[in-house]
Here is the input.
Amino acid sequence: MVIIGAGECGTRAAFALREAGYDGAVTLVGAEAHLPYERPPLSKDAMVAPEAPSIKAISDAARLTEHRIDLLGATSATSIDRANRSVRLSNGSDLDYDKLLVATGATPRRLPLSGLGQRCVYLRTFDDALAIRAHLRQGCHVAIIGGGFIGLELAASARRLGADVTIIEAQPRILMRGVPEEIATIVHEAHAAEGVDIVCGDGIASISNDGTSVRITLASGLQVTADLAIIGIGAVPATTLAESAGLTLNNGIAVDAQLRTSDPDIFSAGDCCSFPLAIYDDRRVRLEAWRSAQEHGALAARNMLGAEEAHACVPWFWSDQYGLSLQIAGLPDEGEDTVRRDLDDGAFILFHLKEDGRLVAASGIGPGNAVARDIRLAEMLIARSAHPDIGALAAPSVKLKSLLAA
Amino acid sequence: MSDWIEACAADDIDEEDVIRFDHAGRTFALYRSPEDEFFATDGLCTHEQIHLSQGLVMGDIIECPKHNGRFNYKTGAARGAPVCVNLRTYPVKVDAGKVFVQLG
Here is the structure.
């Protein structure tokens, strides 16, 4: 079994092959030189840790050895020979497979402008994080292009280090994609209260740099000068390898409910693939989320071994900024009606329902993990296609767990 | 053996639920199972130091509120990614409606 991509998804898949009892060879091919590591801390703890951070390893070398997972680090796959079931590696060698998993992830969407220079950076890898961290200090000015999760988490980290921060978002508000306005407003207010300058509804006309600073000119004519510009305008699936191998693409590598590509011996999972989401009548989605990467990895592994199991998970996502944590289960844009449940300390949850009362998503925000338990229970209700009582959803005194029994 | 510490009243914990208990600078999680038995573990997830008391109890599983790491709270066994380090458990007894923990 060969797995291309040693991120959260590929690494999880490697272990899942062993958990499912597979005894043959497992090779995990990773482009980075590090051991497999967790990416979520890169925009948060790794930025603000007082000491130089190290990777948060998903698995140490001993555990890989114990599970007989052969990690080829600093190596990428350059082509797939599907007829001979073989992968050509960047070191020139060939690796034969019975089943192949392509878990190549996503890469930051590039800003299609010239003149960016070295002071305009992206965040995807641990090394990217170290480079950004080296610039952040008290009183420096950071421009963040894109008011999505990466940008907002980096803004919060930069403020904690005493940097001045300007966020530039082309859309009319931050978090346009996938986050209800009521929740985005809370996030916006939290950043404003921390002194972050947020500019929405203004695109970027041009960028120039003189080697030590970046000058950003907005469509409105407004100019922002910064020591560093961090670009966080989304991610694109890493499909070059799959495309050159002739696999079917559709907003990423197209897979079926079992995460199988158009080649029955090749599976794809995680950020790089789009798949039919059963809970929404097989709506095709591509997710960029830590937990779905894990779930995909585990599912792909079982199916590589012939389980023929269909994806049945509910998307789930979180973000931490300052003391606030946001969690979303399901995709809120599926909802037609909203019911609000107010918890302690200003925390609240929005339940998103279809017209017929079916719960399709829930989004919540609050201090610490205030919304975690209810979001988790909502996720279980969503998975069951429940039609919960609206009065019970709105009443914090009614335990959501009691609705699961109904 | 160390002393039994009185932690709370049995009624302070709902069935199939968990509460936080802090003692002498340490934090613990106390559980009441669906079978009405009581258990105690360290209070923080072994993955990222999150309070398990805000997590969800399902049967004999506690799930961390942050990243859904799972443990069997009766044995402390790690039961799913991202957790791979077991949780320490402590003896519990109930006497006259009070829950006592032996913290050791």
